[in-house]
Design brief:
The protein has 6 helices and 7 strands; from the N terminus they run H-E-E-H-E-E-H-H-E-H-E-E-H. The chain has helices spanning about 5-20, 75-80, 130-145, 155-170, 190-195, 240-265; strands at about 25-40, 55-65, 85-90, 105-110, 180-185, 210-215, 225. A 6-stranded antiparallel barrel has the order 1-2-3-7-6-4. Helix 1 (about 5-20) runs antiparallel to helix 6 and helix 3 (about 130-145) runs antiparallel to helix 4 (about 155-170). The protein is globular.
């Protein structure tokens, strides 16, 4: 007897959910922005104005002992950091909230490669580009310039400014000096570097796509942390995906058998 359409709908729902891992959260202490330069922004976050100077550069964190939900993508970041006491480095993607040196907090961890819309700041109201397009641009930026272990202050500032431009710009063209969001040098000589980087955001040939993790918190700054992608000719599903897919298929078999049994008795 054929399986009815409701059973097939259940099949697709189970298999779709099998590939989506929970985000999880990570407890971190913000250390500082270093290396970094200073800049001015337009628009500037309230209560500041376009003459106010802000740090722009690499953001540094230490993993704290407070880990309320170390699951899903958070596990990958904890592994990358080497566990409690380890270090992580990223770039700010939230120019409208603030954080201070030494502040400890908990962030939801979103794998942007899987869920591009998981970071609210990537979807500014009225933006021409979608969150998925902005994530793709960020991946190209990080693949080309953002995975340097020890950037100079100008390189870190150029990277931070380019990230801000991609995240905040609402028009179709990225420019530090034009459009809906602008960033100006206040110290250093990094603006021309950032502008040059923003002209080519495609993934380099034969380069694995970086994995981007967003740190999302509703009351403090959000950040992005990049991990170098892994190149493989034979992709292997992540353990979580393999486990959930196996459970889903196993559960599906039981469900189909029960449905078939019921249909047979009813017929």
């Amino acid at each position: 007897m054929s399986v009815k359409w409701k059973t097939w709908a259940t099949v697709f729902l189970i298999l779709a959910c099998a590939g989506v891992a929970s985000a999880g959260s990570i407890g971190l202490q913000f250390i500082n922005d270093s290396p970094a330069r200073t800049c001015r922004m337009d628009p500037a976050p309230s209560p500041y104005n376009t003459s106010t100077q802000f740090y722009v550069g690499r953001s540094n964190f230490t993993v704290t002992a407070n880990q309320p939900d170390p699951t899903g993508a958070a596990v990958e970041l904890l592994t990358l950091a080497g566990g409690i006491g380890g270090s992580l480095h990223g770039y700010c993607i939230d120019t409208y909230q603030f954080i201070h040196n030494g502040q400890a907090d908990v962030w939801e961890v979103v794998n942007l490669n899987v869920d591009p819309s998981g970071a609210p700041t990537l979807s500014p109201t009225g933006a021409v580009k979608t969150a998925a397009q902005k994530v793709a641009d960020l991946q190209g930026l990080f693949a080309r310039h953002g995975l340097t272990a020890n950037p100079t202050a100008d390189q870190a500032a150029a990277m931070g400014a380019a990230v801000w431009e991609i995240v905040n710009e609402k028009t179709a063209t990225y420019s530090l000096s034009a459009g809906s969001f602008k960033v100006y040098e206040a110290s250093g000589t990094w603006a021309s570097m950032a502008s040059d980087w923003l002209t080519t955001l495609s993934m380099p040939a034969e380069t694995p796509t970086p994995i981007l993790y967003a740190l999302v918190n509703p009351v403090t700054q959000d950040f992005v942390i990049a991990m170098e992608g892994v190149k493989t000719d034979n992709p292997v599903p992540e353990p979580f995906t393999m486990l959930t897919a196996s459970l889903a298929i196993g559960g599906l078999g039981i469900y189909v058998r029960r449905r078939s049994g019921r249909n047979g008795l009813a017929g």
